[in-house]
């Protein structure tokens, strides 16, 4: 009986440790990232159990008077008046085994939205945007800001 109890306690400790390790690894993405072209900073954050990213700075994000430019390339005319500053461009990512997946990335330069997966390669974040299947996409690399 004591051996079974010890084994059960050991199994619970291992399972709990693995859950905490998964959570810690998932939150590694949180922070501010600089785009590959170095023309935008994106703050990735967690809301509930999903990950999102908002544009916090961009080279061409401001009007001469200092106000934020708007999302003029958006295909939805009702959304063209929203400000680029703090615009959420990464939405609804979930973490699974080293990859953030199932989300979307919006490109305010083109007004297009793509399916997207993200994963680390060393300290850099690889962002893979695609339409349809991941093989038919493009990868960009972001670095910590």
Automatic annotation (TrEMBL):
Domain of life: Bacteria
A Pfam family reported for this protein in Swiss-Prot or TrEMBL: DUF2147
Signal peptide: 1-21
Keyword Signal among record annotations: yes
Chain ranges of the DUF2147 domain: 31-144
Record key words, sorted: Signal
Name used for this protein in its record: DUF2147 domain-containing protein
